[in-house]
Amino acid sequence: MVMTTIADALRRLAEAAPDRPAITEVPIGSSAGRTVRTRLELEERTNRLARSLIELGVVEGSLVTVGLPNGIDFVETALAIWKCGATPQPISHRLPEREREAIIELAEPSFVVTAPIEVTCSDSTPLVPDRVAPAMKAPTSGGSTGRPKLIVSGEPALVDPEARPPFRASRHGTQLVPGPLYHNAPFVYATTGLLAGNHLVVMTHFDAATALRLIDEHGVDWVLLVPTMMSRMLKARDAVDPAPSLDSLNGILHLGAPCPPWVKEAWIEWIGGERVWELYSGTEAQRFTYIRGDEWMAHRGSVGRPDPGTMRILADDGSLAPTSTVGEIWMLAPARPSYQYIGAEARTDGGWESLGDLGSIDEDGYLYIADRRDDLILSGGANVYPAEVEAALEEHPAVRSCAVVPLPDPDLGQRVHAVVNADEEATGEELAAFVGERIARYKVPRSFEFVDEPVRDDAGKVRRRALVAEPRTAP
After folding, report:
1. How far is CA 425 from CA 5, 125, 208, in A?
2. On the CB side of 397, how many CA atoms lie within 13 Å of its CA?
3. How many CB atoms lie within 10 A of CB 288?
4. Which residues pair with 449 in a beta bridge?
5. Opening angle at CA 180, ends 76 and 420, nearest 5
6. Domain annotation covers residue 259
7. pLDDT in 10s for each residue of the chain, 475 residues
């Protein structure tokens, strides 16, 4: 393995095939046409952009906050920041001003990008010498207090230009990017794929039917999805004409949230278990597990087997939980730190760290995720895991997205409440009966709230604290 700079990796790609498409931007819900950048155009534009950013005050070794919509501008800006020797710090372009300012206060960036940069420099030659950012990335995450935190990578901005991407991804193939680039996983896998020579087909935002069409149209061989996307694509496929084949796919990788078993099984049946992969990890990347679809069929619900001695399950009293008993997941911290928090402290215990996830490990060593400790609902003395209830709700054909949250209850302490974005004909009574056929009665939502907007974003994330805090009239 020979590591090199991102600038050098891009130069090599441009020299090898200057006219090959590097990025295609697909606007969703807009009359604007698609935009394409070749490898040579990408190389020259990011050189000019890097020089312009330096003129604007970007400092080597600093963070640069990037709040741009999905598209070519986002990717080019990140590449130019790396060429400056600085670290991209992506945020959502839709953040409220107060939240954006709180993140900027933490990051203390040398520059903030909230609109495409006007390129003032005409020099398209590379900066000499190549610069290396001390941290590859610095995404944000909501902490347990509800305040934002930065997760600064422990790795410098170097890549292996000959490495083959994992999970059946290609080199010099075609990769669909349907997720928001301000989230860690879409950002990492998109830029990693680009630097491996892949043509990125970037959607400005996710649309299930369009995603299916783009896979066949561009011969996409790899895509990163979240379960929400997978569910929507399954529900949309009958309406796509011609019917999507997805024959070009070598593999899909899904992560970001527990995947409802019915969604996983449907994808395995559709494209084959050997092409469906699941990854469990955090942005912190201390440890990870993964599992292929055909292996998952033999261990339904598992996210894979951790390396021996790297994960353990602890009960509430701090003792090791019995086999197949739900407790808190603790990960053995790597010898070389994989991240650094800004704005938060890691939960540590003698060289072990926890992200707050709950799960269990069976007698064969397979890990199963229950939910986040912060999301656990205690209703009448019973534990209710929102992810399980949401999975049952999303099986209903009328449900587009949902989130399950606790609301105060004078009798139960907390009651299970469902916030649902669904077709107009869906009713609370119908959904309660539907869910009651799939999970225990005490887990069925006791109240429903129907909303017009999607409950989850394109990365499958939901802001539960915001939903809980919203004023509402008790039914």
Report:
1. 55, 59, 21
2. 5
3. 17
4. 419
5. 165
6. no
7. 689 999 999 999 999 999 999 999 999 988 788 999 999 999 999 999 999 999 999 999 999 999 999 999 999 999 999 999 999 999 989 887 878 898 999 999 999 999 999 888 899 999 999 999 999 999 997 544 457 889 999 999 999 988 988 999 999 999 999 999 999 999 999 999 999 999 999 999 999 999 999 999 999 999 999 888 998 899 999 999 999 999 999 999 999 877 889 999 999 999 999 999 999 999 999 999 999 999 999 999 999 999 999 999 999 899 999 999 999 999 999 999 999 999 999 999 999 999 989 999 999 999 999 877 778 787 876 778 888 899 899 999 999 999 999 998 877 778 999 999 998 888 999 999 999 998 878 889 999 999 998 888 777 777 777 787 776 654 5
Are 104 and 150 in the same domain? Answer: yes
Q: Are residues 62 and 191 in the same domain?
A: yes
Last residue of a domain, one of 169, 187, 205: 205
CATH number for the domain spanning 303: value is 2.30.38.10
Sign of CA dihedral 448, 475, 430, 369: positive
Give the CATH number for residue 452: 3.30.300.30
Residues 6 or more apart whose CB falls under 8 angstroms from that of 343 comprise: 106, 143, 147, 148, 149, 150
Asked if residue 124 and residue 91 are part of one domain, the reply reads: yes
CA atoms within 13 Å, Cβ hemisphere of 346: 23
Give the domain range for residue 320. 289-374
* Total number of domains constituting the chain: 3
Asked if 156 and 58 sit in the same domain, the reply is yes
Residues 2/162, Cβ–Cβ less than 8 Å: yes
Contact in structure between 409 and 439 (CB atoms under 8 Å): no
Those residues whose C-beta lies under 8 Å from the C-beta of residue 279, and which sit 6 or more positions away, are: 167, 253, 254, 255, 288, 289, 290, 303
